[in-house]
Amino acid sequence: MSSTDEVLALLREDARQSVEDIARQIETDPETVEEEIARLEREGVIRGYRAVVDWNRLDEEPVRAEIELNVTLDRETSYDDIAARLAKFDPVESLHLVSGDYDFMMEVEGESMREVSTFVSEQVAPVPEITQTVTHYVMTTYKAYGVEFDDGHDDDRLSVSP
Amino acid sequence: MKLADRVGRVGPSGIRRFFELAEERDDVISLGVGEPDFAAPWAARNAAIASLERGRTAYTANRGTRELRKLIAEDVRQFDLAYDPAEEILVTAGASEAIDLAFRALVDPGTTVAIAQPCYVSYVPGVRFAGGEVCPVPTDREDEFALTPEALADAGAAEAELLVLCYPNNPTGATMTAEALGAVAAFAREHDLTVISDEIYAALTYEGEHTSIATLPGMRERTVVLNGFSKAYAMTGMRLGYALGPSEVIGAMNRIHQYTLLSAPTTAQHAAVEALRSCDGAVEEMRTQYDRRRKFVLSRFEEMGLDCFRARGAFYAFPACPSDDANAFAEALLEETGVAVVPGDVFGEGGEGHLRVSYATGLDDLRTALNRIERFLES
User: How many CB atoms lie within 10 A of CB B268?
Assistant: First the structure.
């Protein structure tokens, strides 16, 4: 693995670990790690750092929906054009062009079901190229970004063993 | 009740005392654990569950299921080992059973067994239970805890009938190159030693390739290779290991095994089949994590001026103890900081003056534990 790959792999596991700790794990110096990270950010490989939140543990949680979108293309309009328009909307958390029965998979977040529904019906559906939307409200999240939202497993190993 | 003499030939494990000290408090971060902190790969656990659902709870063939032995034969080819699943592979209840069987099949009262030390704590008792005599062969820091013909000669191993070695090593994390093993193999051939090679940590080799001594010229016919699923697949509690060797010795081990165990745990064998079929990725992921932690620990030791040779395998670092008495040091460290490590002399000759530090612990705990060790050293 190149040091870029290693830095990226470590950040993807825990973006909050210090550059010193990253350096120790790949046996390089903190300055090198810092440069790598700066370069990855500059080149737009790293687009941001966010917390993985288990909303079940909080009293209030946002409403999230996965929305399937079908679109129709013409000579002047490509997938990228449509995506660029959709991605501009703040409530859109993620947007992917996917294979299969529909074209885009879009994740939307809002404060209430009404807010999300209104957004879909008033902002998304009227986009001329969009022919169909199917909205799936998220009911429970069990795992996100590779993190399981369970209670973890207890370390039941003997504290000292051969 | 009058107990058999053999029980008295073996003292209680030196690890036991530290276990009891550590158990007394509940804020311990333990770097004293000799098993993975990961759970077994889910696919393997799932296969175990599925086998139970289908009611597959009967004995298996004494030697283990044919399917598992075939897969083991294919798997060990990565180390250039070639064994016939029908005659040369025995599936056991952990590599521990395989160690015991090997001693019982090869050791008579009075047989001398040379054991490269420091080493896993079961070899010496195993030899004594079988009535044999132990010839300890200390390795040292100068040789990065690799076994050398000089160490063997100095210890009088030329007179022994058997030699036991374990690389990558518990407790030192040492590995041996093909070249270094070649010199040991030459010694074994010259003095007609049978070799028991415990390679349970083979998959956890971080620098260089693992070489099995059995692949060296003239060694296959005199070597029993032991391995298992505990370390690489994080399946310690499933108790599943295996022995590879010429049909004669595997047959002899199986004769004892069929009357004592009958067969290794069936559920675990089903898990192991799936582990070999589909869990290479999980093994590689765990190996990557261990390797990062290894580098983290070695870097931290260097920063705090703790002298530690470069461990290249298993999941242990083996720093020199900064004070004369490693036992007192480990005890004080536990008492004052709540960090548990194991003094090296527990693992035999050559281990004194050192500490076994296991990095089979998550990075967060490892970071905290090493910070505490650093502060302890400063005080």
Answer: 25
Write the CB contacts of B49 (distance below 8 Å, at least 6 apart in sequence).
none
The verdict on A23 touching B (C-beta cutoff 8 Å) is yes
Which residues are bridge partners to A135 per DSSP? A67
Same domain, residue pair B194 and B324: no
Q: Do B107 and B232 fall into the same domain?
A: yes
B367's tokens? 């970071």
Q: Which of A17, A25, A161 sits opposite B35 (nearest CB)?
A: A161
CA–CA separation, B176 and B179 (whole Å): 8
- Which residues in chain B have Cβ-Cβ distances shorter than 8 Å to A27? 295, 298-299
ipTM: 0.90
Model pTM above 0.90: yes
Question: Where does the pLDDT of residue A156 fall: very low under 50, low under 70, confident under 90, or very high at 90 and above?
Answer: confident
Q: Please report the domains of chain A, with CATH numbers, ordered by start residue.
A: 3-42 (1.10.10), 55-144 (3.30.70.920)
**Residue range A134-152: average pLDDT?**
93
**In whole angstroms, what is the distance from residue B132 CA to residue B218 CA?**
25
Confidence of residue B211 (pLDDT cuts 50, 70, 90): very high
Inspect the interface and report whether the beta carbons of A160 and B32 lie closer than 8 Å.
yes
Least confident of A72-81, B6-15, B138-147: B6-15
Q: Give the end of a domain, one of B278, B295, B320.
A: B278
Q: Does B10 touch chain A (CB under 8 A)?
A: no
End-to-end CA, chain A: 33
Domain CATH number, residue B346: 3.90.1150.10
- What are the C-alpha distances in Å from B11 to residues A104, B105, B109, B136? 68, 23, 19, 16
Question: Does B155 lie in the same domain as B238?
Answer: yes
With an 8 Å Cβ cutoff, are A160 and B19 in contact? yes
pLDDT of amino acid B379: 87
Task: Determine the residue of chain B that is closest to A29 in CA distance.
Answer: B299
Q: What is the pLDDT of residues B161-195, one digit of tens each?
A: 999 999 999 999 999 999 999 999 999 999 999 99
Average pLDDT over residues B270-293: 98
Indicate the pLDDT class of residue B70, thresholds 50, 70 and 90. very high
Please report how the helices B66-75 and B266-278 are oriented relative to each other, as an axis angle in degrees rounded to 10: 40
- pLDDT value at B13 more than 90: no
Burial class (CB in 10 A: 0-12, 13-18, 19+), A17: middle
Three-state secondary structure call for residue A161: coil
Give the pLDDT score at A155: 85
Dist. CA B41–CA A138, nearest whole Å: 28
